[in-house]
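Aim 2 progress update. The chain analyzed this quarter is reproduced below.
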Amino acid sequence: MNIVSSRQQKIHPHKFTLWIAIGSIIMMFAGLTSAYIVKGEQPGWTSVVVPKLFYYSTGVMLLSSLTIQMALKSFKERGMQQYRTLLTVTAVLGLLFIAMQIIGFYQLFNSGVKLEGGSGAGQFLYIIFGLHALHVLGGAIALLIMFFKAFSAKIRNYNSVPVEVIATYWHFVDLLWIYLFVFFLWKV
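Predicted structure tokens:
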């Protein structure tokens, strides 16, 4: 009998933690969007028009997903200058997305959509899109940490796991935004 030993593939602990966090975030947003659907069937529900700026911020998120993927590829190929540039562009795009969200919320508020004192889509929009913006902010902070490490003369680590983790998380918040945006366009 020939026993073949196979090396068991193990997931890196940071990647495992990320996937647990992503699962939790998915459950949170699934609950919120489910509540939106249920609440939308009740009397007194008011709908809102999604600010046009959110269309542009969607493009910014898609572009940032492309740049983080290119940054990961550059890192793995040890093209550090290109990695630094693409990481910088991704961080700037992430911050631009957040700024566009803030401006979009400001436009909503000025159009009469308030978080308190109402019953309808506007409240959910503030909460759901606001929570998403906080997750993007967390990703942008992680990108900034990676940025400073990439430009640090002291750190010369070519371990791709941190870059893979941030790229995966960034793609996740991008896909989450697309889901939320399409959901609100469809349900509002």
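The chain has one domain: 29-187. The domain at 29-187 is CATH 1.20.120.80 (Four Helix Bundle (Hemerythrin (Met), subunit A)). These observations will guide the mutagenesis experiments scheduled for the next reporting period.
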